[in-house]
From TrEMBL:
<keyword id="KW-0560">Oxidoreductase</keyword>
<dbReference type="Pfam" id="PF00355">
    <property type="entry name" value="Rieske"/>
</dbReference>
<dbReference type="GO" id="GO:0008168">
    <property type="term" value="F:methyltransferase activity"/>
</dbReference>
<feature type="domain" description="Rieske">
    <location>
        <begin position="8"/>
        <end position="110"/>
    </location>
</feature>
<dbReference type="InterPro" id="IPR050584">
    <property type="entry name" value="Cholesterol_7-desaturase"/>
</dbReference>
<keyword id="KW-0408">Iron</keyword>
<protein>
    <submittedName>
        <fullName>Vanillate O-demethylase monooxygenase subunit</fullName>
        <ecNumber>1.14.13.82</ecNumber>
    </submittedName>
</protein>
<keyword id="KW-0503">Monooxygenase</keyword>
<keyword id="KW-0411">Iron-sulfur</keyword>
<dbReference type="Pfam" id="PF19112">
    <property type="entry name" value="VanA_C"/>
</dbReference>
<dbReference type="GO" id="GO:0046872">
    <property type="term" value="F:metal ion binding"/>
</dbReference>
<dbReference type="GO" id="GO:0018489">
    <property type="term" value="F:vanillate monooxygenase activity"/>
</dbReference>
<dbReference type="InterPro" id="IPR017941">
    <property type="entry name" value="Rieske_2Fe-2S"/>
</dbReference>
<dbReference type="GO" id="GO:0051537">
    <property type="term" value="F:2 iron, 2 sulfur cluster binding"/>
</dbReference>
<dbReference type="InterPro" id="IPR044043">
    <property type="entry name" value="VanA_C_cat"/>
</dbReference>
<keyword id="KW-0808">Transferase</keyword>
<dbReference type="GO" id="GO:0032259">
    <property type="term" value="P:methylation"/>
</dbReference>
Length: 340
């Protein structure tokens, strides 16, 4: 499978990389991430070139990482800096790949391609995560046995909520509403606006009158390769947005392999931001919805498809597929251009 190389991939939430190295496979590349004594992040290949042991099982010694098998040590540039055996001579081939890594918006981002092109400004702007007050940010990580583009499709086509999440996120209103889809630069947008209907259950319970008509918005923005923000809110029908509830969630799909995905989720809400009790409730709701509802159908979908490309199977098209198809075609073109 072809992956975009010159792009930022979310590799971990910041809290996942503390005192111990973290190993994570991204786009089929084993990578180890660790912190030096000053807190600076490093990301290098995770496979020791000697006997291919995973470096993340080792430890950080004097700001370099020591292989747990035979004690070779590797610096932030991937070069072996210490050989405890024999006369200590270091073989020229004793090195692993080096990756650019940045810490932004409570996440650890890794660039797989040319380091000279690793422009930090290309990391999606999720600064709302930094700006949200109190305990208003919830983060989680989950793994799925499905291709990352299937998980991306899942967010770009929210009509699935009426069926997969009936009773929690869906009440039938999404299916009869077509999204407005457009591009700005390399980003793709898909917006649903639902006017004068009962709010979906997850929003209705936060409104003054859950049974009254409401105006709702569900707004997705996609950035390559699988980074999406989803702004969701509702207000009593005819009232300004500011009088309702509003929150932004982040659904970031980082490919592990052709059939597995790292799913990073976060939510930054603009209501009850100083209520830690709702943090736990939201986290449980989100985990239950994905683990108990999305994950089974997506993994079953992957098994039905195998490793066959989606378009080669000639899928039947429905009106709500516009955003997902546009993103797939755009990503395909970006990969093709990179490989010229």
């Amino acid at each position: 499978m072809s992956y975009l190389k010159n792009a930022w991939y979310l590799a971990a939430w910041d809290y996942e990389v503390r005192d111990k190295p973290l190993g994570r496979v991204i786009a089929e590349r084993p990578i180890v991430i660790f912190r030096q004594s000053n807190g600076e992040l490093c990301a290098i290949g995770d496979r020791c070139p000697h006997r291919f042991a995973p470096l993340h099982m080792g430890k950080v010694v004097d700001d370099v990482i020591e292989c747990p098998y035979h004690g070779l040590r590797f610096g932030a540039d991937g070069q072996c800096v210490h050989n405890p055996h024999g006369n200590g001579k270091i073989a020229r081939a004793a090195r692993v790949p080096e990756y650019s890594v940045r810490e932004r918006h409570r996440g650890v981002w890794v660039w797989l391609g040319d380091k000279d092109q690793a422009d930090t400004s290309l990391i999606p702007d999720y600064s709302i995560m930094d700006d949200t007050q109190g305990t208003g940010v919830v983060q989680d990580y989950m793994r799925a046995e499905a291709n990352y583009q299937l998980l991306t499709d899942n967010i770009l086509d929210l009509t699935h909520a009426d069926y997969v999440h009936a009773g929690s996120l869906g009440n039938g209103s999404m299916t009869k509403t077509l999204p407005k889809v457009w591009e700005e630069g390399e980003a793709v947008f898909a917006h649903w606006w639902i006017v004068g209907e009962k709010a979906i259950p997850a929003l209705a319970r936060q409104l003054p009158d859950p049974e009254a008509p409401a105006d709702q918005w569900l707004e997705v923005k996609w950035n390559a390769p699988g980074n999406m923000s989803l702004r969701v809110g509702a207000t009593p029908a005819g009232r300004p947005r500011e009088e309702g509830i509003d929150s932004t969630s982040f659904h970031i799909m980082t490919p592990e392999t052709a059939t597995t995905t790292h799913y990073f989720f976060a939510n930054a809400r603009q209501f009850r931001v100083d209520d830690p009790a709702i943090d736990q409730v939201l986290k449980e709701i989100i985990a239950n919805q994905f683990l108990g509802e999305d994950k089974p159908i997506l993994e079953a979908q992957q098994k039905m498809m195998g490793t066959t490309d989606l378009f080669s199977l000639k899928p039947v098209s429905l009106p709500q597929d516009v955003a997902a198809v546009r993103v797939r075609r755009k990503l395909e073109a970006m990969c093709a251009e990179e490989n010229q």
